[in-house]
Write a structure and sequence with these properties.
single chain, alpha/beta, two-stranded parallel ribbon
Length: about 150
Amino acid sequence: MIDKNSMTTTPLLLITADPSHPLAKLALRYARAYLQNAANADEQHNDSDHSKAKKAPLNIFFYGDGAHTANRLRWQSADQVNLTKEWQKLAEQYDLALPVCVSTALSRGITDADNSARHQLDSDNLAAGFGLVGLSELAMMMQENKTLMQF
């Protein structure tokens, strides 16, 4: 059973740093640690009722230069962490949404198939698992969440 008070304290990570910036890596580390702690706490308090769907214990929003994280064509050398792939793995593991502001993504050359067609662009390059959304999504998350952390 989900405690209503814990739902109102779900943190929101606003990721505005370019994937090459140390803050972008810190955001991923924070998200991993937070989700692992939440999963461990959930296991301890689990009353063996697995049938109820649970809200993700963390909200994430990519904005500004953070939108570069959603570019599937972004090459990363082997000695560096590929943040795009790491976010994809984390999202799959914890069933997280990876919303990206559509305006900031488009202005940085990142698009999905729908926007590519709408704006007559040659192709799309949005990484799997990421989704382009309006800024209203961020506004709604900010209303629901009491804790905002910007990286």
